[in-house]
C-alpha cells in the first residue's frame, strides 16, 4: 500500500473511534433544540413583553374613590380648524356632555356666551371644519360626567381654534 492509502486508513480508523462521541453530541444538540422550541411564538412574545408591560389600576374611572375631576381635561387645547378633535372622558359615568362656550372671536357675527353642545357620549370626535365651531375663536370646553348617585363631575379647558 502506498502512503496515501495508509494515511487515509489511519484517519478513517480514528474517525471510527470518535464516531459514537459525535453521534451522541449531535443527539444531545437535537434534543436541546427540540426542548428550546417547545414554546410557541405567542408564549415567547408574552414572555418578552412581560418584562415591559405593567398592568395599571384604572384610576380614570368616576367610580374610583381617588378620582379627581380636575384631571379629566388638560387646561388648554389649541387646534387648527381643519383637524379633528378627539377626546375621551373617564369611564364609569352614567351620562356625558361635551359643550363649548364662545369666549372671544374675531368674527363680528359671533355671539359671546353662545353654547354649542358637541356630544353626549364618552368619546368626543368632531371634525371642526364641519362643526359650528368658529375659526380664530377662543372657547371654554366643558365636560360634565354624571356618576353614580347623580354625582356630577365637571372640568373645563380653554379651546383655541386657529
Write the layout of secondary structure elements.
Blueprint: H1 3-36, H2 41-49, E1 76-79, E2 84-88, E3 95-105, E4 115-119, E5 123-127, E6 137-146, E7 152-161
Parallel strand pairs: 1-7
Antiparallel strand pairs: 2-5, 3-4, 3-6, 6-7
Task: Report on the architecture of this protein.
The structure is a single chain. By secondary structure, the chain is an alpha+beta fold. It contains 2 helices and 7 strands, in the order ααβββββββ. A 5-stranded mixed β-sheet has the order 1-7-6-3-4, with no helix packed on it. The protein has a two-stranded antiparallel sheet with strand order 2-5. The mean pLDDT is 79.
Q: What's the number of helices?
A: 2
What is the overall silhouette? elongated
Determine the structural class based on helices, strands and strand pairing. alpha+beta
How many distinct beta strands? 7
The fraction of residues in strands falls at 25-35%
Mean pLDDT level? 79
N-to-C series of helices and strands? HHEEEEEEE
Reading side by side through the largest sheet, how are the strands ordered?
1-7-6-3-4
Q: Tell me the distance between the termini.
A: 98 Å
Amino acid at each position: 500500500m502506498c502512503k496515501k492509502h495508509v494515511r487515509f486508513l489511519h484517519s478513517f480508523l480514528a474517525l471510527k473511534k470518535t464516531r459514537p462521541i459525535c453521534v451522541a453530541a449531535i443527539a444531545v444538540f437535537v434534543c436541546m433544540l427540540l426542548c428550546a422550541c417547545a414554546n410557541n411564538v405567542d408564549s415567547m412574545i408574552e414572555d418578552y413583553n412581560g418584562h415591559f408591560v405593567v398592568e395599571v389600576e384604572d384610576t380614570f374611572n368616576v367610580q374610583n374613590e381617588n378620582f379627581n375631576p380636575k384631571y379629566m381635561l388638560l387646561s388648554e387645547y389649541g387646534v387648527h380648524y381643519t383637524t379633528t378633535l378627539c377626546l375621551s372622558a373617564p369611564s364609569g359615568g352614567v351620562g356625558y356632555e361635551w359643550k363649548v362656550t364662545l369666549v372671544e372671536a374675531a368674527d363680528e357675527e359671533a355671539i359671546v356666551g353662545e353654547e354649542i353642545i358637541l356630544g353626549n357620549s364618552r368619546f368626543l370626535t368632531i371634525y371642526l371644519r364641519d362643526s359650528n365651531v368658529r375659526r380664530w375663536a377662543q372657547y371654554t370646553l366643558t365636560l360634565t360626567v354624571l356618576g353614580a348617585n347623580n354625582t356630577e363631575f365637571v372640568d373645563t379647558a380653554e379651546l383655541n381654534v386657529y
